[in-house]
Amino acid sequence: MTIPADCLATAVVAGNGFTRNTDQTTIPRCSNDGLARVRIATKKPPATFAIAAALIGMFVVSRAVAAPSDFDGVWLPDVKDQKRQETQNVPPWKPEIWPQIQRLVDEEKAGRPFLVFSHCLPHGMPSWMLITHNAFEWLTTPGRVTMLGEVDSNRMRRIYTDGRSHPEDPDLTMHGHSIGHWDGDVLVVDTTAVAPQAYIATTEAVGVPNNGDMHIVERLSLAKPNVLRDELEITAPKVLTAPWRTTRFFIRYPDRHYEITEGECVQEDLVAGKDQFGNDIFVPHPQNPDGSVRTTK
Predict the structure, then answer these.
(1) What is the per-residue pLDDT across 188-230, written as a single tens digit (0 to 9) for each?
(2) Theoretical Cys-Cys bridge with 146: which of 132, 135, 139, 187, CB 3.0 to 4.6 Å?
(3) Is the pLDDT at 169 greater than 90, yes or no?
């Protein structure tokens, strides 16, 4: 009996649907009505079946481990380039959004900056890659790229490279759901399911929530051995008139052995103190009328 190649691939990848006893093997066969089962009297699969299964298995595994290894390490944002793009590559805001942006710019100039990152929420996408001033660590493992952000413990991106699709009914999160594939030495990342509350920000004081239906495509590559380039295309129909294309750079310093450090966003609101028993604790730090904290050293 000849088994169609696509049915064989389905069976091997799924890893279920095979049963075997002492004298029979059950192999699924495709039909218009789904998987029908055909019983074949044989004690072990034909050699062609074993070879095909091995090749398919090798292909599936190779998709998860084919990532370049030279992306790993700690990356620091090119803040100077971020500042340059604040004025040279402005998002195509919708007309009704521009007054909000101008008000935020004026408030920042007046010394009353709006806090885009507040309440210890994750930075979210795309703001993490657009305006972060902190380092992140890139970790490549089979089937996944993980980005761990410094400063707050809730800054983590998972980019799945194992061939999966986006879920049909995803839970919305600040960083969204990211899947990627390697196009040569370029990691192409597709991100959806971002919470509408996640900001599109050009500075830590200027930005607006995406308000839903945002889609982000990134092309991550090495511009130089220790320069990471992230080319972003951000589609946000609720606040942008057209997709916004922008690029950010991150620098790796292998000779300095940078490590990301532990931190929590609330630590600026706290100061070391004692409780009534003399135990070391944190107590609230005095705040200014605008809710900000000015620490003195």
Answers:
(1) 999 999 999 999 999 999 999 999 999 999 999 999 999 999 9
(2) 139
(3) yes
Q: Do the beta carbons of residue 187 and residue 129 sit within 8 Å?
A: no
| pLDDT attached to residue 228 | 97
User: Which pLDDT tens digit goes with each residue over 66-123?
Assistant: 567 689 999 999 999 999 988 899 999 999 999 999 999 999 999 999 988 877 788 8
Instruction: Encode 199-212 in three state secondary structure.
Output: EEEEECCEEEECCC
Helices in 89-137 by DSSP H: which ranges? 98-109, 127-131
Q: Where are the domains of the chain?
A: 5-65, 73-251, 264-297
Tell whether omega for the bond before 126 is within 30 degrees of 0, i.e. cis: yes
Integer Cα distance of 42 and 206 in angstroms:
70
Q: How many CA atoms are closer than 13 Å to the CA of 251, on its beta-carbon side?
A: 10
Q: Are 176 and 193 in contact (CB under 8 A)?
A: yes
Give me the amino acid identity at 91: P
> How many residues are given for the chain?
297
Q: Which architecture characterizes domain 73-251 according to CATH? A: Beta Barrel (2.40)
Question: The tokens of 70 are what?
Answer: 């030279």
Beta bridge partner(s), residue 191: 178, 216
From residue 215, give the alpha-carbon distance in Å to each of 164, 177, 234, 253: 17, 10, 6, 32
CA dihedral 124, 126, 132, 135 (to 10 degrees): 80
